Amino acid sequence: MKLIRVIALLVGLTAFLGADQISAFSTSTEPKLILIHLDAASGPILEEEMEMGNLPNLEAFFGEHQRINYAITYFPSKTPTVISSIRRGKTLEEAILPGWKRTDKENGGTIGLIPTFLNMAFSKSRLATTNLIYGIPAFYWMAPPALVNTADYLKDYNILEFYWYRVDSEGHFRGEEAYREQLAIFDRNFGRLVRRLDDDVNIIIYGDHGMTFGEGVEIDHVIEEMVGDDLAIYSYPTLFLENNSPKDFYARKLVEETGIDYTFFLSDDGVVTGYHKDGIIRFDSRNGKIRYTYESNDVLEYYAHGYNGEFWDKDQWLQFSHALRYPYAPVNIYTFLNNPNSGDIITMFAENRFHQTGYSRAGNHGGFTYQDMVTPLLIRGPDVDELYGEEYFWLPDLFSRIDGINFDQNPPRERHFLATRYDFSRNRQVVQASFSPGYRIHYGANVYLENRLGIQGIDRTDIWGKADIYRSYLTRAWLGTGIEIRDADITPFFKFQYDIHLRKFVLQNSFATNRQYYFKLSWEVLPWLALETVNFNSAGVRFDF
Asked: Which of 14, 146, 220, 454 could form a disulfide with 473 if both were Cys (CB 3.0 to 4.6 A apart)?
């Protein structure tokens, strides 16, 4: 009966405080968006898999007018370039990361793999940072439940980002068949997610680049030997030379004496020159428009499709070339080489040939053919319907076309809560109250009530505070401190809490210096009501507001 009375009191307090508090806390009136980065998703392959019926959930959820099959990505078609640029709306002129390595023109020297990786990782939202781990084969199993969990985070966050890397990893490691299998695995888990979502949730899925399979070419050691002391650093497709090294000389020599099919560089006169075994390509600009000319052979096949040497703006090039073998190449290559981070020479392969490394044994990307440059863009929701029905798209424009996308938005605070449970093993009742003055902070008190000679009194009170030090879509870690008050004794303590989240269940592992370890299992019945047990020897309820 005492437990029932306490629960009734908590319900009353929640009803009294909850209406205003929940409405003030909730952001439900603003658009809800889940943005899914499907790493290495190829537009042509995804469309082919849909036509064969291998991706039923994606096909059913995104109707014909909600799929853009020709989304042309950033150049170079590399994950660091896209991730560090797209959510900030950076164009090719502004992109910071041309690949995994680059020279540091401001401070001298080079910037290697680790700094680039950290720059990329922390350019994402805090919740999504650890998605990178799920792309490591040993941790593949973590990606599906994390993706499905995003449905539960919409109660607090309006905009969620999720990065699915497994498709990319399998393409690099094992090749096209395994790559396609991973697309099907993503489709199944996407189906599990959408079954948990309301109709008003907006969803955008985009690929950062495609993937080329076929003939792998190991070229790094050849370039190092050929360029020698003039080489500052090479990170396909970008080659950085030491100061005053002859770009024209090395660009021509690399095509003539190695397996590289194309090289491009920016001349002093502002013209981009490209060499290939059958001739020369040139891109030049006038009044913001770009022209393509060639010598010997129209290797890009633009003239064969009706181009006649005109200066075209970006929209004209996109409309004309989006479905060709080398989509948007004049704009991408010319613009990128005018970026101060671009390097001196671009080295690339033709269709069905890729840069092979120890990591990328079976497939790779970074080139400028349709295999690497064309990605899917899938959109659905009441706030993104302006993009419905478009045939082609330039991926860097995505978030400038959609209003109200604030990736840095966080909840104003955590949810306050009131809780009570009865401990059957010790025949006592525990009441807990917590409030949050701001995001990632909680203050609270636990009151332990015991029955002494028929009189219920306070045996102990813990007053504490804790801060969130880590969070992902599966786990959360807190670090805190407090004091224990027992009769006239006051004892300070430290606490560490590690939460594991799986759909409506949360397993809270709690360690403190003033007591033994315990776990608490919570089941969220409603967004504001959860049932809880500690060590399976107690039962209670928690009210969030």
From this structure: 146
